[in-house]
Amino acid sequence: MRWSPRSLWRRLRAWLAERLGPGRGQWQDWVESTAVSGWTWWAMPWQRREWRCALYQPPGLAATTPAPLVLLLHGCKQQAQPFARASGWVQAANQGGFRLLCPQQRKGANLWGCWNWFHPAAQRGRGELDVVMQALARTQAGWACTDVLAVGLSAGGGLAALLAFHHAEAFTAVAAVAAPPLLGLGNLQDPRAVMRDGLVLAPEAAVRTLSACAPLLVLQGAADTVVNPRCAEQLAAQAQAVLARQHGPLTEQAHAGGSDWLDAEGRLQVRRLALPGLGHEWSGGLGGHAYVSADGPDLTAQVLAFWRARNAASSAATSGSGRAASLR
Question: What is the DSSP track for 198-266?
Answer without folding.
Answer: --SS-GGGGGTT------EEEEEETT-SSS-HHHHHHHHHHHHHHHHHHHS--EEEEETTEEEEE-TT-
